[in-house]
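queue> holo job accepted (NDP)
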Amino acid sequence: MALLISGAAAKQAVYRDALLALDPSLDIVLLRDGVPDPSAIDAALVWNHPGGDLARYPNLRLLIAQGAGVDGVLADPTLPDLPLVRLVDPLLTSAMTEHVLLAVLRHHRDDAAYRSLQARAEWHPLPAPVTAKRRIAMLGMGELGRASAQALAALGFPVTGWTRTPRTCGDIPIRAGADAFLPLLAESDIVVCLLPLTDATRGLLDHAAIAAMPRGAYLVNAARGAIVHDASLLAALDSGHLAGAALDVFEPEPLPSHHAYWRHPRVVVTPHIASETIPSSVAPQVLDALRRARNGLALVNHVDRRSGY
Ligand code: NDP
Ligand code: OXD
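queue> job finished
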């Protein structure tokens, strides 16, 4: 049986090489090269897989997403009802923590203001920011949100997490459920979004949510673009209700060149680079998933398709 790999053409080969380095006996087919025998495919390692294609492999038994978020995989209406696992990787987590720290600290330490002062050669110290008074809401306290929340708390920021189900995370308080959402936003100076995109989170950061944030608050979205209602965010930035936003993810991607975010003075745009999956780092868990599925063992990081993450 063979593993099918999709995704960006060049990356398909990088995944293949990383997997073969661990197990040269693997039979691997790259989607970019065509699939001579669809019945030979029993597992697929997928990203941006062409819609409808996964329904044409009669012996497919396992889907592995090439990332942490599975919204793209689940978006295919013809996706076969098969076990889906996602990646949880220390390098993915630490890269996201770096991204979140950078975005938060850039705002917290008035970096935009100092850059424009420098551009005018003006020596003008601003009031020192008080870390202990900058309240941060971490929306999503999963693999990525927890690590970012812990790193921010270690710097002295008061961090509160938000989850779907009640959770604990050391000393970091967590509020759960829809009723806790707006009250948490109302008392947060920085909101970091690390939620999965699901039916429940699509458009969650809408006009009402953004209006609930205090005047001068800041938004960091490194989750998925469709969680934010763009027109509401732009209106809040234009009016000065929000001080700014650091956005790594958009709907659609790539962000069209005419989009207002690109040139907005209060927006920092990055091209979905907060945390990239590194094939050599995740290859052992891909192999493990494959072995488990082929031997009928319980899967790790198995996605609950009802909740969508
Ligand atoms: P996890 O599945 O580990 O965690 C998701 C968290 O979100 C959990 O705490 C979960 O709550 C919470 N959550 C889910 N739905 C809701 C809801 N309706 N209300 C409140 N809380 C909710 O995900 P990861 O931390 O691994 O990844 C998060 C997302 O980050 C990914 O789905 C992906 O979209 C994005 N991502 C972005 C990258 C980038 O480069 N920009 C890179 C990698 C991922 P509970 O604990 O109760 O289950
Ligand atoms: C992911 C991503 O979900 O890269 O892993 O966005």
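queue> The pocket of NDP (ligand 1) is lined by residues 67-69, 92, 140-145, 162-165, 167, 194-198, 200-201, 222-224, 248-249, 272, 274-275, 309 (CB under 6 Å).
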